[in-house]
Write a structure and sequence with these properties.
The protein is α/β, with parallel strands linked by helices. The chain has helices spanning about 40-50, 65-70, 75-80, 85-100, 115-125, 145-155, 215-225, 240-245, 265-280, 285-295; strands at about 5-10, 30-35, 35, 55-60, 105, 130-135, 135-140, 160-165, 175-180, 185-195, 205-215, 250-255, 260-265. A nine-stranded mixed sheet has the order 5-4-1-6-11-8-12-10-9, with helices on both faces. It has a two-stranded antiparallel ribbon with strand order 2-3. Strands 7-13 form a two-stranded antiparallel ribbon. A hairpin with a 2-residue loop joins strand 2 and strand 3. Helix 3 packs antiparallel against helix 4. The chain starts with 6 loop residues before the first strand and ends in a 14-residue tail after the last helix. The model is unreliable at about 305-310 (pLDDT under 50). Bound molecules: 1-O-phosphono-alpha-D-glucopyranose. 1-O-phosphono-alpha-D-glucopyranose (G1P) binds near residues 114, 207 and 240.
Length: about 300
Amino acid sequence: MPPTIRRAVIPAAGLGSRLLPLTKATPKEMLPVGDKPVIEHTVRELVASGITDITIVVSGGKSLIQDHFRPNPVLVDQLRADGKTAYADAVEEVAELARQGHITYLDQHGPYGNGTPVLNAARHLGDEPMLVLWPDDVFVAEVPRAQQLIRAYEATNCPVLALMPMDPGDSRRYGVPVVKEDLGDGLLRIVGLVEKPEPADAPSAYAAIGGYVITPGIIEELREQTGRWHEHRDGEVYLTDAINAYASGRAVYGQVISGRWYDTGNPADYLVAQMAFALAHPEYGPVLRRLARELGDGEHSASGTETVPA
Ligand code: G1P
């Protein structure tokens, strides 16, 4: 059997501080983008990519995620009895998606940092290659981003990082890969990641976005890092440190993802994502586009009242 990936982890224990106060009571993963919460876009992407074992790593205050994916036969029966078939079907479809992805939930335990949920999941899933997708990114792509990563893994049998071309000024927000070789079709051999460099120090024009194929070798490095977490910068365990430790001597690849990428983890980009999905909606899009044109002309303010010209 050629190597492939059936398991995926979505770390969803973060506080979503950049979106406060929106995320005070609502997990950032449950904020809507288009007509679905952010995390449902990710789960759909994973299921469409053949993933059959999804672990969502949560913390306190995230029960809405579970509620969203849990079957609710009482609600469905009520909707059907009321003749509201389309709503009943929509509710059942989400539960069916969760069933296909065999979603399980884990509580995050351990030191702060984005390496911890990955290690928690590895303890649960066993040391097998797995996809790790941050819950902030939403992709619109002909071939799902997860599928593009899986293909790169199948071709290389090595860890793979999802990359996107980046504006140089954005390097302070991302891990930036050191590229050794361009193998074509967006596949790059990389030798490490520089975390959030100044633009002048950025080793390439790509950003590592929240998507990784993590192999047992990287998990081993994470274990090593976690054992010494108190020696680390900020006392946190970072996936990047484990990837860099692994990459010194062993092959790691980057896959430049083809598709449109929306970051939903900060207010400005979240609004962009919401607007893009709203405008593209087959049913509501045309009305919203008309409204956007009107608002763009300054005829109305966002509150719906007339703007008084100065
Ligand atoms: C993390 C990673 C960084 C990556 C980013 C993508 O940073 O450490 O390499 O570019 O996610 O969202 P964070 O945003 O958690 O600080």
